[in-house]
Design a protein that fits this description.
single chain; 211 residues; alpha+beta; 33% helix; 27% strand
């Protein structure tokens, strides 16, 4: 039995193995209610943007720095550090077996936010947001195959999962939905370095956190 690593799978392979269908959506309001940001939130968001820009201007920002300088502060500001949300980091997923093919896939997700107040099955918490991060010079689309594969693992437990791929500067939100076939919706790409897009990014993260 072949046991490939999720890192090595292309988007085409993930679509074929798990029958994923790709769709596009140009409106977050189809899924979320976005509230206006407070002035203090705008100020903190500006600080995150300025801090990241200093590193971005100097050199490539590593994947670890992206998590520390951009993703973690954004999650805190959006409310992901408060109960009932819990952040899980870099854990192996159970092997994913592909039906009709003699394949098992191993992988390790970057960041997962779960809700300890919601149980989808006994001892199984609701996945709020799954995040794949890359360094600042890698296109965010490279994280999509991993994101979809990890999310697929949990679609047996809940009807949909929110995902996010980022390189610190660009942010691709993905709405992944259970079905036959399963569908993932690519939403408008957001950018931390642009004022309006970064504000929308924080609004979206806050809305996901409050689901």
């Amino acid at each position: 039995m072949a046991i490939p690593n999720a890192l090595n799978l292309s988007l085409e392979e993930v679509q074929r193995l798990f029958s994923f269908q790709e769709q596009y959506s140009d409106s977050f309001s189809n899924y979320l209610f976005l509230e206006p940001l407070l002035e203090v939130e705008q100020q903190e968001l500006l600080q995150i943007r300025n801090d990241f820009d200093r590193y971005l201007t100097a050199a490539k920002v590593s994947e670890g720095q992206v998590k520390f300088l951009a993703v973690a502060p954004l999650l805190r500001l959006a409310g992901f550090y408060g109960y009932p949300i819990e952040i899980v980091l870099e854990e192996n997923i159970a092997d994913i077996e592909v039906e009709d093919e003699d394949i098992k896939i191993k992988g390790r997700f970057d960041i997962l936010a779960i809700s300890k107040a919601k149980h989808t099955k006994p001892q199984t918490y609701f996945w709020v947001l799954l995040i794949e991060s890359k360094n600042s010079q890698i296109d965010i689309s490279t994280g999509l195959p991993q994101l979809l594969m990890y999310a697929y693992k949990n679609l047996d437990n809940q009807k949909s999962v929110w995902g996010l791929t980022t390189n610190g500067r660009s942010y691709q939100l993905v709405y992944i939905e259970q079905g036959n076939p399963p569908i993932y919706y690519l939403l408008l790409e957001l950018n931390l370095m642009e004022r309006e897009r970064s504000s929308q990014l924080l609004q979206v993260l806050k809305a996901i956190c409050q689901l």
